[in-house]
Amino acid sequence: MAAPHSLPPRGGIYVPVPTFFDTKQPGTVPPLDLDTQAAHSLHLARSGIHGLVLLGSTGEAVHLTRAERTSQIKHVRAALEEAGFKDYPLIAGTATNGIEETVELLKEAKEASAQWGLVLAPGYFAGAVSQEGIEGWFRAVADASPIPILIYHYPGVSNNLVISVSTYRVLSHHPNIVGAKLSHGDISIHTQIANDPAISRTHFHVFTGMGQQLFPVLQVGCFGAIDGLAGIFPKVLVHLYNLVVGEEPMDKKRLDSIRAVQYRVSRAEGLIEKWGTVGIKEAVSRCLGFGEVHGGRLPLARGMGTGEWENWSEAMSEMANLEAAL
């Protein structure tokens, strides 16, 4: 078990980065494009993003071998260090239901230089799982993990698994469980976890997985977002975060600025909400020039499809203009 004082990632904006593949290579399983991976990561770090999540849902971790996962972390870390981003926060995702395999992934992530693990809740048997079972599963993983972990609750990829507020309360007391990413729209749950007097705000940080919630979740005590849109428009999301958490009084001018930026963010987040990883990849390619428009591995290789991008052109253009202005 880790030391009793494992620290959570600091508050801010984190990006669940997509995994880039060299789709110009022949075959049905394109290899990793590690140079593009590093270039995109450096762009985000230089734009003020507080840390990266590698190998999450956006990163198509379920489509990667364990060797590929390790090589991605090592390559990104090496690029960051070479560019002067020493000890830049890297969080490595796991997406498996077995305790032993999850721990193995966390050990390999540590060896590759990730500082935290983002552990997806085990949802394969969601309909039959008790809260006691979830608690026991996370405790077993945290007991054996060499790095602190965050609970990742994404019902959309976990068979709509339910995790109760009381389960978060119990797990928050584990010295090696230091936070949670909540990728669902229930602000009440965010509020209850973030402000539970039985949960230490020093030890356990709550992040939303949805940038369209950034202003409200910061208002109710969460620490930031792990947000896909920030991988396309990093400066805008960091700007919004800074506007909300700034020390100056919340006067009408500042509030109006926050609302205006949050409006644009929320409009653009509709693409992420509808299309997820494939939408993020297409937007990263079209807006930033990293990777290919249809850059996923099967079964995601087709992308959003012909004509869909045009449905989002107005919202994305607004964000691109704001990003350029920053």
From TrEMBL:
PROSITE patterns: DHDPS_1. Keywords: Lyase, Schiff base. SMART domains: DHDPS. InterPro entries: Aldolase_TIM (IPR013785), DapA-like (IPR002220), Schiff_base-form_aldolases_CS (IPR020624). The keyword Lyase applies. The keyword Lyase applies. This is Dihydrodipicolinate synthetase. It comes from the Eukaryota. It holds the Pfam family DHDPS. CDD domains: DHDPS-like (cd00408). It comes from Discina gigas.
